Amino acid sequence: MESASPVAVIGQQQIQSQGIVNTQDLLQKLPQVGIPGLSRANSNFLTSGNGIATINLRNLGDSRTLVLVNGRRFVPGVAGTSIVDINNIPADFIERFEVVTGGASAVYGSDAIAGVVNYILRTDIDGIIARGQYGISDRGDNAVYNGSLSAGTKFGADGRGSVIANITYSKEEGLLSRNREISSQDCSSLGCGPQSYSSYAAQGRFQLRNGNAASGTAGGFASDLFTFNPDNSLQLGFPTGYGFNRNAVRRITTPIERIIGSLNAQYEVADSATLFLESTYAKTRSSSQIEALALDSINDGVGTGYNIDNPFLPAAIRQQIIARNSDGIASNDVTSIAFRRRQNEVFSRSNRNDRDTFRIAGGVRGDFSDKWNYELSAVYGQLLDRTSSQDIDISRYGQAVNAIRDASGNIVCADAAARAAGCVPINLFGYGTATPEASAYVLAAEPRAVRIRNTQFVVNGNVGGSLFALPYGDVRASVGGEYRREKSTEDWDALTNAGLNSGNQTPDTIGSFNVKEAFGELDIPLLKNLPFVQSLSIQGAARYSDYSTIGHVFSWNAGGEYSPFRGLRFRGLYAVANRAPNIGELFSSASETFPSVQDPCNGVTATSTGTYAAACRAIPAIAAAVQNGGTFNYTLADIQSINGFNGGNRNLSEEKGKTLTLGAVIAPDQVRGLSLTIDYFDIRLENAIGIVPRATSIQQCLLTGQSQFCSNVIRNNTGRIQTVNAQNINVAATKTRGIDVNFTYGRALGLTQDDRLDLNVLYTHTIGYDTQSDPSAPLNSGVGNLEFGGVFRNKVNATLTYSTGPVSLNWTATYLSPMVDTVRDEFAETADALGLSDEIRRHNEITSYLYNDVQVRFRAGERSTMDFFIGVNNLFDRKPPKLEDTVFYGTITGTTTAADIYDPIGRRFYAGAQIRF
């Protein structure tokens, strides 16, 4: 109500009244919060980061939302970023959290373009509070356990000191895809079911291969397929239903287990100085579960497949090969046997995550006088994240596939050196045929693993108070400085570095930066208590930052407030915010690739016409090549030699956000307990960091000559493309605007002696949300469109609480307006081209959703020392929309829906108790 910019405040009572174990679940209901970059429902398929919980204000990205604890930074939970994993903040230790939207960099620093989520921890526990809760879905799965113990006391003379502590344990078991009808089967453009199962089957899909160019394309395949029945008898062809249903083993939500210990203390050493300490340690374990590796003998680096004389080959197939290879028809010969095989019994590529987060903050605060205060603080935080999974050694796998019979008739590896090293031949012909010994041999000696270490150190000092008096009040100011140092390392195992296991080659990343900042705020009262001017004031803030990576950055804001009379206040603020590129964007190692690209200049002559012809001839080397009637051409060798680099870019500059908010605050004396805020917001993100596709860089460099495209394209002295990079550059833009409404009303009803009704409504109407990946790209509207941002036109969160005596009833409703999953016109054209079923077409239209959560709470004991509560989330069991895994849908893999937006679990019950001693 008093802030110059829109703020949503969620208190401890509201957290407890919804049975919240993880605060991400509550934040996701707020209309200001968009789709999280990381959550339990969208991280199952990541190579790391499974189960991490992040916040995305205004759908501008998690890296543009700054998360603070007691106004201070928290160590990042994701490698190379500023993104905080809010799993590390225990719900039972939170007094409230405040959501400030819009450019807040001037006040809080970089990363606050979209806004700030500030967690305020408790300070006033006296005694012991024990709390326990258990929850389960109405299908008997997705169990959730939570227990916490908080304690606090005062100490020292006159109670000058206080200490509070909390330990929390929580466990969420997660949910398997097969346990919900919507996601139990693989889906594709053909629909859901056996027709869409993966051709990488558990028993293998084998194909006779013909290396004779006369049969068509050199190295092409003959048409013959074979596989195996469940009893491992031979099955010619590959009938529908013989594939692998990947959703049978996938997860909708990842399990997560957390142990968090927190301790806060303070001691008043003098009337003007109080020492304080905050500490947190969190141990988090999570895991993913995905289908076993789909190995392809042609594309996955294990050679050309099985030799035709492999001793594991079924006799019937062997006889067929002998007959074909002796009929004198070369085009009919079989030279090898290619395979697609799921590695079910060989190894599991599901991740195991183990994270340790430690943070300590301390300092001194106090008053210089009755008008001036100060604070000096330091923060140190560290994250250690270890993610590992089994994997194969590609070179060993190739050795195990190549088997022969020795002189004694034993099946052995053909390579003598491999045999000496312990090679065991692997049999993939059928279900479960790879022996434990063969599986053990092809496994990598060490698991596929990444070790992440983030560290953060911050020193901050500030003073604030009254500068001088004006006729209508004191001019108040706050000034200070901050030093921050951050470092991040992402260390992969040796095989992953070399690209010799089943995943992509991944280099290590290491980087660091420091920043020195000076900041200040000013509040000037202009008029007060005059006719038609209850109050009039202006405010401003500025922050100057000097980064070791990008140099100087300046953020500022300016605004004002005007109240014509008591109960009505107008407010406005304009802010210019910045985000410095993070460690990953700057320092991630460049990896070389040889992309398949086309130069529009290929084939240009002196007289040719077309979109790019004139621009091509403007390149001197090309002009010279075509001036005497020649043609500018590429050879196959020229095309194949084009390289490029992906990764970080140390020449990045800061992103810039411009925010305008205009609003009104209404709290009439005539209606006690009512307050209403209405705010218009307009946020424009410029110079955003993104990646331009290589083809776009080539084309737009010719058409526009702009540096953001041409800097990616390097031509040699013949005019031919030599290198096309796809590294991070400052190229993208986003703009969003809308209206926020916060309505609060509470009063006694008089039905009983002490009854009360409270209503709180948060509502956001988004007028526009447009993104552009680069200046040449189309402007995509994400309002009501899941494909281009997933921003709801209208999103409402309303909480109604009725209490009387020891009983309270809480009802929370969250409304999500209708959505489509892609642009309607484009969808219709593409759907016709692909021949999609009418059922799949209908699923493109997502209706509005209304989720309802209820809780009943009862207090007992002489001083209400015991609370008992029971609740239901998604009371009416609203099912999520079905979004098949086709080219249209941005489905979370394994869920057949947008599981990070719509509830994929269904109705859930929970019950618990809290006791105070």
From TrEMBL:
Residues 335-875 form the TonB-dependent receptor-like beta-barrel domain. It comes from the Bacteria. It is a multi-pass membrane protein. Its main location: membrane. One of its GO terms (cellular component) is cell outer membrane. Residues 2-116 form the TonB-dependent receptor plug domain. InterPro entries: Beta-barrel_TonB, Beta-barrel_TonB_sf, Plug_dom, Plug_dom_sf, TonB-dep_rcpt-like. SUPFAM superfamilies: Porins. It holds the Pfam family TonB_dep_Rec_b-barrel. It is found in: Cell outer membrane. Keywords: Cell outer membrane, Membrane, TonB box, Transmembrane, Transmembrane beta strand, Transport. Belongs to the TonB-dependent receptor family. This is TonB-dependent receptor. It comes from Sphingomonas endophytica.
